[in-house]
From TrEMBL:
Listed name of the protein: DUF7322 domain-containing protein
Keywords: Membrane, Transmembrane, Transmembrane helix
InterPro entries membership: DUF7322 (IPR055746)
DUF7322 domain boundaries: 26-85
Superkingdom, taxonomy of origin: Archaea
Membrane-spanning residues: 39-58, 64-80
Length: 89
């Protein structure tokens, strides 16, 4: 007679948490527009700042790299000002 071995995984029970479906939640169109415009501004800022600094540091391209840094700083400051204005409202 062969002894049977219990499977320990049968005694384990994992409770899976319920997840709310957020795909049906609608936001105000004005807030959506503001959100995506800020995402675009901060993406431009990040791209221009990083590329401009790398061009200046690694290739000594001061004119083009410096221009990108200025554009990046402008986009960042504009996005930050818009963010602060939305927070006030």
């Amino acid at each position: 007679m062969v002894p049977t071995v219990d499977d320990p995984s049968e005694r384990l029970r994992v409770d899976t948490p319920s997840v709310r479906d957020y795909s049906t939640v609608d936001a105000d169109p004005e807030i959506q527009k503001e959100f995506w415009s800020q995402v675009l501004l901060f993406n431009i800022a990040l791209f221009c700042l990083s590329l401009g600094l790398m061009l200046v540091a690694f290739q000594s391209r001061w004119t083009f790299g410096g221009g990108l840094v200025v554009i990046g700083l402008f986009a960042f400051s504009r996005g930050y000002r818009r963010y602060r204005n939305v927070q006030k409202d």
